[in-house]
Amino acid sequence: MLFDFSLQRLSADKQNEWCGREMRREGKFLSKLFLHLFYIHLLLISILVIFLTVRGVLSAAHTHHFQPKNWYILVFSSTSCSGIIGFSWQAFATFNPSRTLKATFWLSPLLTCAFGILLVSIGTPGSLAASVIALVFSVLQSLYACWVNPRFEHSSRILTVSTAYHPLKVKTSVVLSIIASTLYSSFLMAGIGGATATGTMVDTLFIILILGSLTWTTQIIKNMIQVTVSHIKYMQFTCGIEVDFKAVVKTAAKYSMGNICIGSILVPVCDVIRGTARAVSLISGDVDEFMFSCANCCSGVASRIVAYGNRWGFVHVGVYNKGIVQASMDTWEMFRRVGMEKLINSDLTSSFCFLSGVAAGSICALLGGTWALVIHRNYATQVCIYAFLTGYFTNRVAMAWVQASIMAYYVAYAENPQSQQFDTTITTYMQELQRSQV
Predict the structure, then answer these.
(1) Distances in Å between the alpha carbon of 239 and those of 2, 70, 235, 251, 412?
(2) CA-to-CA distance for 120 and 129, rounded, in angstroms?
(3) Cβ atoms 293, 354 nearer than 8 A
(4) Euclidean distance between CA atoms 54 and 51, whole angstroms
(5) What are 172-231's pLDDT values in tens digits?
(6) Which of 353, 55, 325, 301 is nearest to 195 (CA)?
(7) CA–CA separation, 403 vs 339, rounded Å?
(8) Cβ–Cβ contacts within 10 Å for residue 292, how many?
(9) Residue 403: CA count within 13 A, CB half-sphere
């Protein structure tokens, strides 16, 4: 009987080993597939943008519907402004993290409201629809800032501690990433201008595809920074050593790029689902009505989804070369094991970076839209929207190293809470959260 049991156990171990190999093979296949899809998409989008740009310039010679000079002056100046604002914002976060965090939570609603008022003044149906969204969102931001105000002190402390160490080469990579995002955004805006010249249904589809490319590509640039910087900061937090930046970048580009491409789609989708579920649960409260009957269900689904795709997993993607799903599962399990789940849920890092992007996008939209009203009013609505998007995404790229530093700090602490590399910041706040539950 003992012999039979040993055989069964050995067989089960072999099955588990085989399943693990199959999962790794499948992960490598998906990683390579998404990497190739990304490069193919870049090629196709480049061809499309060049075609639309040339067609727009040629069509402008025959009709007066599209004025390339005015269009390109407006969008290129707005895109350049997004790079300047993104660089300035991350610089403020470096030199004075606490004030930058607090200022972001209070400035973002005001800037979004100003953006909404500008859209109202433009007066087109599209601008009026967008203004409603902007004004409602500004109110929601204000309410959120009031709600999370008690967390500012802890978040400022975490932000200060985690970003205290920033290698010079990281700064260089951030500047290069901002420049790359700005240039790529300008290139895509040229294609959108060409599509605007004719304005058919097919051109609308082309604009959607170009904006989708802008979203995915900037997400990949942002997550590439997060993978490399979190790797460097993780080693500093856990071992107190500084690894070679060039080696980390080469390793990430060679082994992790495919998983970064996957995570750049998976993680934002999971964040949107999780954020929606948390909003539904917050709105429902203790009201027992039919319209809120799915709140608990949504919360349960969100808690499961976050384990399979979260930004904390990018730390293990870079350090251990894991797939994004496996890395997300492992990091979230660590947080649960050491009792950090509630701490992570109350973290304001993602909100800070998100609102920084919203504020930067609103500034770009205000500058571009105001100038459009003076130069060419017909372009004001489009310039406002495109300037907001480029400002938002460029700022998210600029703030990626800040978010990566905090990610590495939390993950390194979860792996070894007793390490002498950490002070009592996390421990004290976890005790405060426990006392608040009593």
Answers:
(1) 45, 55, 5, 19, 10
(2) 9
(3) no
(4) 5
(5) 888 999 999 999 999 999 999 888 877 788 989 999 999 999 999 999 999 999 999 999
(6) 55
(7) 21
(8) 16
(9) 28
